[in-house]
Specification:
The structure is a single chain. With about 270 residues, the chain is mainly alpha-helical. It folds into three domains: about 90 residues, Helix Hairpins, CATH 1.10.287; about 80 residues, Helix Hairpins (Orthogonal Bundle), CATH 1.10.287; about 50 residues. It has twelve helices and no strands. The chain is extended and about 60 Å long. It catalyses: ATP + H2O = AMP + diphosphate + H(+). It comes from Fluviicoccus keumensis. InterPro entries: MazG-like_dom (IPR004518), NTP-PPase_MazG-like_C (IPR048011), NTP-PPase_MazG-like_N (IPR048015), NTP_PyrPHydrolase_MazG (IPR011551). This is Nucleoside triphosphate pyrophosphohydrolase.
């Protein structure tokens, strides 16, 4: 342990040391490609800490996420591509450029107007960089599938290509279910594509109902784990194992878990 109060400069120096010839063999071995998965993992752990309102954990996870920025900036510096100061310069300039209502003459914009202006400036930047391309290219292809589906739909909605009633989306979902059934019966090779269509439609329904699809699915995952843990605990209490339990027995315990979740807390 140490009482030293570290600074950002210290962090950059520590990372440079870890990547040096006398540093850590694991850190020296890493590349942009090998670190990509860690960026995603750390971002998810940040969102998990936010969801659980564990702010001490959030502080730690934000540090882990910052490490990925510093780590990759050091690799880029070694390859003569850019360094951490370039990263800071780029994001600072972008923030100033995209907030003319704060740093320029524009004032009094509503949050909705700010959002629209942000997207307009982004589009102008893409044209300046020679990335005008297609309208949907403004949505990153590197996003997780669920988040990208929602962003693609919101992008299409900007030009009026959208449903105007959640009930219409429900009708479309029923059509997609029928198409899965038909593919399952007659063209099994088409099943993955049809399931993808259903998932895309489900995200669309969530969007129209103002439901955060990522958060909704995360909560359902946690609910499933919680109820399945109840099944396992009850099975063990009966001197059995999950493998030796029948589906009907586990289904009964699942219903029991559902009932307990709906019960008032016991003092």
């Amino acid at each position: 342990m140490t009482d030293k109060n570290y600074t950002l400069g210290d962090l950059l120096e520590i990372m440079a040391t870890l990547r040096s010839d006398n540093g850590c063999s694991w850190d020296r071995k890493q590349s942009f490609d090998s670190l990509a998965k860690y960026v995603i993992e750390e971002a998810h752990e940040v969102t998990e800490a936010i969801s659980s309102r564990d702010y001490r954990h959030l502080c730690e996870e934000l540090g882990d996420l910052l490490l990925q920025v510093v780590f990759q900036s050091q690799i880029a510096r070694e390859q003569g591509l850019f360094d951490f100061s370039d990263v800071v310069q780029g994001i600072s300039a972008k923030l100033v450029r995209r907030h003319p209502h704060v740093f320029a003459d524009q004032t009094g914009l509503t949050p909705e107007e700010v959002s629209s202006q942000w997207e307009l400036i982004k589009a102008e930047e893409r044209v300046e960089k020679g990335k005008g391309g297609h309208f949907m290219e403004q949505v990153s292809s590197g996003l997780p599938a669920l988040a990208r589906a929602e962003k693609l739909q919101r992008q299409a909605s900007k030009v009026g290509f959208d449903w105007h009633d959640p009930r219409a989306v429900l009708t479309k979902m029923r059509e997609e279910l029928d198409e899965i059934d038909q593919a399952f019966r007659h063209n099994p090779e088409d099943v993955p594509g049809e399931v993808g269509d259903l998932l895309f439609c489900a995200v669309n329904l969530a969007r129209h109902l103002d439901v955060d699809s990522e958060l909704a699915l995360k909560q359902t995952n946690e609910k499933f784990v919680r109820r399945f843990n109840h099944i396992e605990d009850r099975v063990r209490a009966m001197g059995k194992t999950l493998d030796s339990s029948t589906l009907s027995e586990m289904e009964a315990l699942w219903q029991e878990a559902k009932g307990l979740e709906g019960s008032p807390p016991i003092d």
